[in-house]
Amino acid sequence: MTKFIITTDSGSDLPKEIIERYNIYIVPMHVTMGEQTYDDGQFDVQKVFDYYDEAGELPKTSGSTPQDNTEVFRDVFADHPEAQIIHIAYSAVTTVSFNAANIAAEEFENIHLVDAKHVSMGLTAVVKATAEFIENHPETTPEEVIEFVEDVRERTHMHFLPKTLLYLRAGGRVSNLAFHGANLLKLHPTIVLENGYLVSGKKYRGSFERCLKKMINDFFKNYNIDPETVLIGGAPDVDKQQRESIFELLKEYGVSTNKWLETGAVISSHGGPGAVGITGIEKAP
């Protein structure tokens, strides 16, 4: 039986229980605030928002380097010399991480790379589904695992609803005119993943709570989502009452989870405090 080890980028925002359950190795991405660069996942996300409030600019996020990947690959083979590594990368069109992993992999054998075409919770969903596939198919081959990832990534959907557009404006994703117009009209545009890109999705009008409910309802209306694959979470500042109301709404769609995922610094620096996201995988045809 082949021993598979999954590696992925820290921008996947994988919760600790999934990392430990499936023995997943994490390659760090990076966040720069002022003159200091930090490994993503190694500090409180609130620090991102505090920095923006104090400096008036967003932190700079960057992908993993070849050296970051090399160190993790070496750790894997030191712990599991006969393993086959399945590296499920953060969306290649958004960062250099996938190219960095490709460069690092040239030094080794038995490394298989695939672009997840997802970030944050969407990448978590792809990684978790792949880990379950490997566990349920102990005689599978590396080629079959990669084929599975390439299939499931196309059926995975992720939508985010920012509570404020300040961070999207600061990052150049929203113009000043659109920002002021959205505030005036109480518009809340969603952020969706399309072919690996973060793009503006449907715009909702009204209070954030009302728009959030509409986004979740539309998510299940537009996709034939397997309720067992749904993940929900967001940045800091989502209060307990709001989380509970979201869980109650999800029950209407057969979703039993009551676990809230905390998004990391990379995606939170775009969505801002209070942003909420949902991801899930469509049922196979």
Report on the structure:
The protein is α/β, with parallel strands linked by helices and 285 residues long. Helices cover 42% and strands 24% of the residues. The protein has 11 helices and 13 strands. It has helices spanning 16-22, 46-55, 66-79, 97-105, 120-136, 142-154, 166-170, 176-185, 208-222, 240-251, 265-271, and strands at 4-9, 25-27, 30-33, 36-39, 60-62, 84-89, 111-115, 156-161, 187-194, 197-205, 231-234, 260-262, 276-281. The strands form 3 sheets. Strands 10-9-8-13-11-12 form a 6-stranded mixed beta sheet. Helix 3 (66-79) packs across helix 4 and helix 5 (120-136) packs across helix 6. The model is unreliable at 174-182 (pLDDT under 50).
Through-space gap between termini: 29 Å
Q: Cα-atom Rg, whole angstroms? A: 19 Å
Uncertain regions spanning at least 5 consecutive residues: 174-182
SSE pattern, N- to C-terminal: EHEEEHEHEHEHHEHHEEHEHEHE
> What is the averaged pLDDT score?
91
Helix content: 40-55%
Could you give the order of strands across the largest sheet? 10-9-8-13-11-12
Strand content: 15-25%
**In this structure, how is the largest beta sheet organized?**
6 strands, mixed
- Please, how many helices? 11
Could you give the count of β-strands?
13
SS class: alpha/beta
What coarse outline follows from CA principal-axis ratios? globular
